[in-house]
Input
Amino acid sequence: MVPSLPLPEDPLQAVLDVLRCGQRFLVCSHTRPDGDSVGSTIALGMLLQQMGKRADLVSADHIPTIYSTLPGVESIRTVQRADGPFDAVILLECDTLQRARLHGLQSFFQINIDHHATGRPFAHLNWIDREAASAGEMVYRLALAASAAITPAMATCLYTTVLTDTGGFCYGNTRASTFAFAHQLVLAGADPIRIARDVYFSMATSRLLLLGAALANLKREGRLAWLFVTQHDMIRSCAAEEDCEGIVNFALSIAGVEAAFFLRELADRSIRVSLRGKGQIDVASIASRLGGGGHRSAAGCTLPGPLPRALDEILFHLRPLAAALVPNRA
Ligand SMILES: [Mn+2]
Output
């Protein structure tokens, strides 16, 4: 790993300086892209274009269908390698270089823009703001600092980042400043109704079939709840990976439950874990102990199978945290 520079006093300005000096940039985010990674990638690409730069937008994984209506989404190419004479590569909300799963990134100057609690200064230039509701909010501040115009297309992408990363303005990262940000985006041309329809009311049938399978496996234990799907459930529902997005929230939505998790058996039999909390339990602390990461109330990790073993491991870490909570007043 290349030693990183000391954290600059004004990282936003430091990032802007690099963008101003260079000509061609690679912009990428993490694998299994979500609304924030897709929206912030496109918006940053548009900002660079306004600055007269060339931006190559790439992703190691395909863009989930619910984000296929975002303006400019066709400019993201699915590739496995960073290829080109880039002046810098910009990684959005990655906690390591590996999170982007692109070969060849290490040979470029790297800029890390992240808002996760588990964000780490792995790059040459690191701008980590744990107060930002989404990586898109950081791109927005970069655009303002660059005196760029926030076009309706940019506003649409940025609104999607904040809508999805706050779970529709419900999660713990929702602040007064989040609504101020959303307000600015609506003024700049984002249509909140159309975006909500595209994100929340455009589900594939396979997703609901998979949800049914997951709900059939729902378990509740005091302040904890969990559900899971096997490879068999995935195949029977004709489900894609993106159909698993958000299923964990159904377990979290139970009254009195403080933390929930969703286990998904992958094709190689390892287990993908999504953890969610309502604020009292720091699920990121568990995820990072198990090799993953995320936010206090939304985190994830991957464990070796089989499924019952992974379930035991998560419960081993979660049960003491649930037991330490003050008893339910209900
Ligand atoms: Mn994010």
